[in-house]
Amino acid sequence: MRQSHRLFTLKAAANVAVGYGVTALLQLALFPVAGLSLPLVQSLKLDLAFTLAWLARIYVLRRAFARWGRESRRATTSQPDLAGGA
């Protein structure tokens, strides 16, 4: 079953928002433990950079796997009939 474009967009936006929030909370909790200190605005900017890098990675991987899937399907449908059938 395919998702509607609207549902896919909503799901993607929720995923990004939750990911950004988790990254921000982890950074706020773990940086002091590691002896690092950043002002809140700089911390949020760093979170945004991580989120954008994550989005780019996901986009590239999705495109690569989609292309790989198309090429794989194309290769299997263009294979000659090795059984010698009609």
> What gross morphology would you assign?
elongated
Low-confidence stretches: none
The tally of domains stands at: 1
Helices and strands, in N-to-C order? HH
Please state the average pLDDT score.
84
Distance between the termini: 34 Å
**Rg on CA atoms, Å:** 22 Å
Specify the helix fraction band: over 70%
Structural class of the secondary elements? mainly alpha
Number of helices: 2
* Main beta sheet strand tally, sense and closure: none
The total strand number stands at: 0
Beta-strand content estimate: under 5%
Describe the structure.
- With 86 residues, this protein is mainly α.
- It is built from two helices and no strands.
- The protein has helices at 5-33, 40-77.
- The radius of gyration is 22 Å and the shape is elongated.
- The chain starts with a helix and ends in a 9-residue tail after the last helix.
List the main descriptive attributes of the protein structure presented here.
86 residues; transmembrane; elongated; mainly alpha; transmembrane helix; membrane
Task: Provide a compact summary of the structure.
By secondary structure, this protein is an all-alpha fold. It has helices spanning 5-33, 40-77.
SSE blueprint:
Blueprint: H1 5-33, H2 40-77
